[in-house]
Amino acid sequence: MEQVSLQTFHRPFNHWVKINSRLRTTGGRYLLSDHHLEFNAHYLVPEQRMALIGIIKHELCHYHLHCSGQPYEHRSQAFKTLLAQVGGSRYAPALGLYHPQMRRYHYQCLSCGCHYDRVRRINTRRYSCGRCHGHLQLLRRPQSA
After folding, report:
1. Which residue of the set 38, 47, 59, 73 is catalytic?
2. Which terminal residue of the chain has fewer beta carbons within 10 Å of its beta carbon, N or C?
3. How far is CA 53 from CA 36, 99, 107, 113, in A?
């Protein structure tokens, strides 16, 4: 981290780096409150070295811009310019760790016919259609194993 910061940004990195094995959908994150960086443990394998360097540069862009008082958000022009200059990655490559659960329950509104897919079962007496506030009916249940 310190080596990439000095070589790429010509500024030192003076905070902590944490490895977070619970991260699934992101490569890393910059914590505004304490200026520490967290990285996905799954990018530490040798096959993902180039991706990890791109993620490190991305997070260091947030870090150095925030510490210098400049806009550090993804949408800011300063961030986009600095990221392009240092060659950081805009997005972390997908590792296939995040699998959205299969939507097992299928509901239909009895008034307007709107369809809803849900992972969890809902109480049809308590919840109604978001479009017309009509009653919902369960059409498909999960297959029992």
Report:
1. 59
2. C
3. 17, 25, 45, 50
CA gap 113, 109 in Å, rounded? 5
pLDDT at 145 over 60: no
Q: Give the pLDDT confidence of 111-126 residue by residue, as tens digits.
A: 999 999 888 899 999 9
Domain positions in the chain: 2-86, 105-140
Nearest-CA neighbor of 62 among 98, 94, 24, 89?
89
Fold of 2-86: Zincin-like (3.30.2010)
Q: Which residues contact 41 (CB under 8 A, 6 or more apart)?
A: 19, 20, 21, 23
Based on the residue annotation, tell me whether 2 is a catalytic residue of this protein: no
* Average pLDDT of the segment spanning 63-90: 96
Cα separation, 131 vs 83, whole angstroms: 42
For the entire predicted model, the pTM comes to 0.69
